[in-house]
Amino acid sequence: MNKAELVDSVVGETGLTKAKAVEAVDAVLSAIEGSLQKGERVGLVGFGTFDVTDRPARTGRNPRTGKDIEIPAARLPKFRPGKKLKEAVAQK
């Protein structure tokens, strides 16, 4: 499912106009992104938790040349699914 399909699903579930559904989806994604930028955790009960993890700098190896390379530190978003979502996916 891509964003357009998600918007169509929201339209079907809520009866909103397509323009309002686009605004709603954009607002939710923007709120999650903003919270993660601040380093805050976003928990949606039953669905899952979005969090930020810090990955330290490390030394890697270029597979083509075999030379060592420095991989910089990074802040990455992480998602952990909730129990209800895990159960829904497992049922098929």
Which whole number gives the mean pLDDT?
95
Task: Give helix % range.
Answer: 40-55%
CATH architecture of the largest domain: Irregular
CATH topology of the largest domain: HU Protein, Chain A
Task: Tell me about the largest β-sheet.
Answer: 3 strands, antiparallel
**Helix and strand string, N-terminal first?**
HHEEEEEH
Q: What's the CATH first level of the largest domain? A: Few Secondary Structures
What oligomerization state is this entry in? single chain
Strand order of the largest sheet: 1-2-5
The figure for the number of domains is 2
Kindly describe this structure.
The protein has 92 residues and is α+β, with helices and mostly antiparallel strands. The protein folds into two domains: 40 residues; 52 residues, HU Protein, Chain A. Helix content is 45%, strand content 29%. The strands form two sheets. Strands 1-2-5 form a three-stranded antiparallel β-sheet. The protein has a two-stranded antiparallel ribbon with strand order 3-4. A hairpin with a 3-residue loop joins strand 1 and strand 2. Helix 1 crosses helix 2. The longest helix is centred in the N-terminal third of the chain and has 20 residues. The radius of gyration is 19 Å and the shape is elongated.
Notable traits:
92 residues; alpha+beta; single chain; HU Protein, Chain A; 45% helix; two-stranded antiparallel sheet
